Every structure is written in structure tokens, then in C-alpha cells.
What we know:
Elements: E1 5-9, H1 16-29, E2 37-41, H2 44-53, E3 59-63, H3 80-85, E4 90-93, H4 96-101, H5 106-118, E5 122-127, H6 131-135, H7 139-150, H8 156-160, E6 163-166, H9 180-197, H10 200-205, E7 207-211, H11 219-223, E8 230-233, H12 240-247
Parallel strand pairs: 1-2, 1-8, 2-3, 3-4, 4-5, 5-6, 6-7, 7-8
Helix pairs in contact: 1-2, 1-12, 5-7, 7-9
The chain binds phosphoenolpyruvate (PEP).
Amino acid sequence: MRRPIIAGNWKMNETIDQSLDLVTKLKSEVAEVNDVDIVVCPPFTSLFAVGKAIRGANIFLGAQDIYWEEKGAYTGEVSPGMLTNVGCQYVIIGHSERRHLFGEANQSVNRKVKAALKFDLTPIMCVGERLEERERGVTEGVVREHITRGLEGLSREEVLKMVIAYEPVWAIGTGKTATPDQAQEVHSFIRGLLRELYDEVIASKVRIQYGGSVKPENIFDLMREKDIDGALVGGASLDAKSFAQIVKYER
Ligand code: PEP
């Protein structure tokens, strides 16, 4: 059985005070949850404060990006050690906004994944096709490329520690969710790919989240699919009640 994992990507939202307000409300909303891994990914500026606020709680801290070098002249970047130092246990890598707005390529996704693992951070590696690619019928080709290049050179032990997030770009922030069938089809393809690249144990153990306009109203049907193990949530994670309802999808 794979343990569900619901992560909130706050993107470039919330000052420190707003972040503390949000996470304090969330903490009380989800206090009794013990069967789901809950992760919040505030902007870099709020990581330290939020990390302190959730110490000892059932919420993990994640960052939204990472750089692969340990230190040096890399203006504007944040190293793996800096993230663990503020209490991060997770890091989102290769989010579609990084790929498409900031030109992040598969090769740098792969370097970031390796750097995160080296520092015991769990990478949440995002993959997914754009609308035009889905319409051209190349969804599986795009996802195959993201996964094979993103995991290049990783041992099976390393891949076991990862989380993969399937996020069709056309569903992110658009209000258009993939149907449970559409999401399941790609999740099952990803699991098959893990079997092909590694083996059955890896394929059956790696958790695969769905992301793209997840809301309290659609989480239950998505989570009923056999290869969907959780969600990466953008917009709805900025409201403590909505995010808590998503976390408590079964209750
Ligand atoms: C995301 O940022 O990863 C995301 C899925 O956003 P939203 O839930 O707003 O579509």
C-alpha cells in the first residue's frame, strides 16, 4: 500500500506573516490526520518561519526549487544544504512553470534531483504535457522524455525515495482538471515506464501525485484511481480550509 501524499505549492504567494497565518490555520484543521503525508511548499522567504511553526506537527516542509551546487557564485540560487538547514524535507523540481516560463530543461531537472537526493531531500519531480502536445497525441512521448531524462543515472534505491507528480500543463491554474480516467491513463503509463526502466518493486512503490486544478470537489474521484497516490495542489492550497478538505478527502 502506498501512503497518500498531498502537497501544497504556494508558488509566489504569501509574505511571512500571511504564511504563518495560513499554516497556523492549516495545522489546526489537519491536526487529527495521521494517514496522509502533508507537505507545504511556501516561497523561499517564508521557509524558515513556516518550518519553525510546524515543528513537531504532522506537516512536512518543502521548497519550490533547488540548485545543484553546494555553494559559490550562483547569484539568486539556493543550495540543497540551505534547504535542509531551514527544515525542508521535500523539494519540487521541474514544475511546469519552471520548465516553460524559465526554460528549465530535463538535464537541469536531473541534476537537481540528484543534488536533492544527496542531501536526503525528497524530490517531487513534475512531468506533464502541454495542451498542444496532448492534441497532437504525443502525451506519452513527452512524459517518457521527462521521466527517462529526469531519472537518468539514478539507482533503484534513489528512485524509491522519490515522488513523481503528473501535472498536465493545460490543467494547471486553469480550473480544467483532467478527468480521473485521463489522469489514471497517464499514471498507469508512468508506472509501466518505471517497470521498464527499473523493476516491479520500483513500479509498485513509487508514489505518483496528480496535479492540475485539484479542489475539494474533485479529489475524491481522483484518489479512487488505482495509480493516483496523492495530489500537488496550487491555488486551493492557499486556503487552509480547502487544502484541509483535500487532505481529508476520505472523511
Ligand atoms: C501546481 O502549481 O502544481 C498546480 C497544480 O496548480 P493548480 O492546483 O492551481 O492548478
